[in-house]
Amino acid sequence: MKVRTKSFAIIGTICLVASLALTTASADQRKAQPRAAEVTLTNVATAQNPTAGTAGPGGTVWIAERAGTIRVLGDQGLGQPVLDISAETTTDGERGLLGIAFDKQFTHFYISFTNLEGTSTVDEFAVSDGKLLPDTRRTVLTQTQPYDNHNGGDIKFGPDGYLYIALGDGGSGGDPHGNGQNLGTLLGKLLRIDPRGGTPYAIPSDNPFVGDLDARGEIWAYGLRNPWRFSFDAGTGDLLIGDVGQSDWEEIDWAPASSKGGENYGWSQMEGTHPFRGGVEPANHVPPIHEYDRTGLGCSVTGGYVYRGKAIPDLRGQYVFSDYCDGTVRSLQLENGKVTGVNDLGVNGGEVISFVQGCKGELYVLALGGGISRIDPA
Asked: Could you give the CA distance from residue 125 to residue 70 in angstroms, rounded to a whole number?
């Protein structure tokens, strides 16, 4: 969870602007610029503190509730729990059931949670005919957490078929143990593993730090504070990460689908593009593609998805995100990893804790208070 720790020459230039407008109009005929989409939020269900969701078999959407239950979203709302691990986790601090994911074939299901001791845990279940097989459950990966916040916990399968796992820097504040820049720990990292390739998992041979005796081979990217939500663009394969800031700046990081990994997003030497408490910018720092400050209502970025659905054509190709404290749903217009526009979509999802991408690319907004809403055309 993220209960804590936002983002535009006058008379003498009018004639020039008019002239440029004619040139731009001609260029726009060749390449139309995205428009701010007109959307609305349609409430489709109410859950108990929903935290995450994923597209499931048969076009379903599965929803995780913080206390440990998972339910399937249907036409009549949420069904009865298909899994309940509430006796195995706790909602102290920022703990709980934090992430869920299916593999690409819907033959295995993964959950990410903090156990009763606060240890980040990823477990696997086999799936048959769209149903979990409880007896097949096994633990894939664990990571001890020194504090009860900054757990990360998001999990996604990438276009390459590997499982990516986001872990925060371990918690407290200011990264007291220096985990963000320490390649010897999994904390403050985005991991990439092959959960079916070994016992309990295999490390892909092309991970960036394989063979480095001073680094963990599971690491794909580092320098992250609390990468609460990340996603892959279903159209391009690009990676986008919403990394929650410490005191002043919220950031969204990006890597192209062609990346070989190893990106250093800067924490805790950097907070966004700004040195943190006298930090020195690493030579290999990859700055965020977007950041916003805390002078408004925002305090905790909630990463989302690049919209690839069909219901809202004006939104296609834009990255949709929000902020837990502000709740305004926004989008970034992107071109080759650069932000060309920032849009307020004019809707507020409340305490936006997560987004879910359905099988057909439509997006849902989860509010920690319980609301599950679909982003529809206005």
From this structure: 13
- Laid out side by side, the sheet with 371-377 consists of 39-46, 371-377, 363-367, 352-357
| pLDDT tens digits for range 244-264 | 999 899 999 999 999 999 999
Asked if 373 and 351 touch (Cβ cutoff 8 Å), the reply is no
Alpha-carbon span 99 to 371, nearest angstrom: 17
Which pairs with CB-CB distance under 8 Å and at least 24 residues apart come from 276-283?
A: 276/174, 276/246, 277/174, 282/181, 282/223
Per the CB < 8 A criterion, the answer to whether 286 and 264 are in contact is yes
∠ CA 348-8-9, rounded to 5°: 155
- Helix %, strand %, coil % of the chain (to 5): 10, 40, 50
| pLDDT reported for residue 210 | 98
Cα gap 377→93, rounded to integer Å: 37
Which pLDDT tens digit goes with each residue over 119-136? Answer: 999 999 999 999 999 999
Q: Are 371 and 43 in contact (CB under 8 A)?
A: yes
Inform me whether the pLDDT recorded for 38 exceeds 80: yes
Distance CA 55, CA 305 (A): 13
